[in-house]
UniProtKB/TrEMBL annotation:
The keyword Nucleotide-binding is assigned to this record: yes
Protein name: ATP-dependent dethiobiotin synthetase BioD
CDD domains linked: DTBS
GO BP, sorted A to Z: biotin biosynthetic process
Active site: 62
Keywords, comma-separated and alphabetical: ATP-binding, Biotin biosynthesis, Cytoplasm, Ligase, Magnesium, Metal-binding, Nucleotide-binding
Molecular function via GO: ATP binding; dethiobiotin synthase activity; magnesium ion binding
SUPFAM superfamilies on file: P-loop containing nucleoside triphosphate hydrolases (SSF52540)
Annotated residues for binding of ATP: 37-42, 75, 135-138, 196-197, 226-228
Length: 270
């Protein structure tokens, strides 16, 4: 992976708006991760920014927002701040404590959010938008309600692919492999992996992991969002986002090649 984007998260190529229109994703895309605090929201904002630059209408759905109360800004507000007001935001529930949604809902005496509710909201947004991004909370199998439903259950109802956001450093390969295995066990498609916060000065593990993600996930490495990207001014974020993502996600970062990509194709049966 080239480190140029990571070295300067605000660097943009200045490519014309609409240049990625043919490649930008459409339909419903579920954005999950290997854990929490790994860059899912900033990655979601980058996906939304690329879609907007390609002339697509975009909605972001956050089924359950935890750790906020009242009118405090949550993840949807952060996506709209970074990607632009052209993004439609929707949130189904919010809970004051920063816990797994089912636990936060129970402690607050509020109902959880079931997969049917998530799927219905995503379908309604998809009727009016070219791309709907459903951002999960924590990892793929975090429980959303008292019955133990997860984001994977919602993805199955939606028949939607799942993009996995992963950490960069030591330990991430195991978490990525487990997430991909859980997707396959449920008959779900792993669209690929994006590093949610690529360090500007990667250590040995982070450098080596770049060549291993595809094989571990059985799906390609489709991008790397630089650490600190969320602190960029929105205009710089919007212009730089395509540098971080592969063409199939609306960006123009070179597609992965070489042994790792070949192993991923073999793993996926391609």
């Amino acid at each position: 992976m080239s480190t140029a984007a990571a070295a300067d998260p605000g660097r943009g190529t200045g490519r014309a708006e609409g240049a990625g229109a043919a490649a930008a994703p459409s339909g419903v895309l579920v954005v999950s991760g290997t854990g929490t605090e790994i860059g899912k929201t900033v990655t979601t904002a980058a996906l939304a920014a690329c879609a907007l630059r390609a002339g697509r209408t975009v909605a972001v759905l956050k089924p359950a927002q935890t750790g906020v109360t009242g009118e405090e800004p949550g993840d949807v507000a952060e996506v709209r701040r970074l990607a632009g007001d052209g993004v439609t935001g929707a949130e189904l529930a919010r809970y004051p404590e920063p816990l797994a949604p089912a636990t936060a809902a129970r402690r607050a005496g509020l109902p959880g959010v079931g997969p049917g509710e998530i799927a219905a909201a995503a379908h309604a947004l998809a009727e009016r938008h070219a791309l709907v991004l459903v951002e999960g909370a924590g990892g793929l199998l975090v429980r959303f309600d008292g019955s133990g439903s997860t984001l994977a259950d919602a993805a199955r109802l939606l028949d939607a692919p799942v993009l996995v956001v992963a950490a960069a450093g030591l330990g991430t390969l195991n978490a990525t492999a487990l997430t991909a295995e859980a997707l396959r066990a449920r008959g779900l498609t792993c669209r690929g992996v994006v590093i949610g916060s690529a360090p500007t000065r990667p250590g040995l593990a982070a450098r080596c992991n770049v060549d291993e993600f595809a094989a571990e996930a059985g799906a390609p490495l489709l991008g790397a969002v630089p650490e600190g990207a969320g602190a960029l001014p929105p205009a710089r974020f919007h212009s730089a986002a395509p540098d971080w993502l592969a063409p199939c996600l609306g960006g123009h970062r070179p597609a992965p090649r070489g042994p790792s990509a070949a192993r991923a194709r073999a793993h996926a049966g391609g």
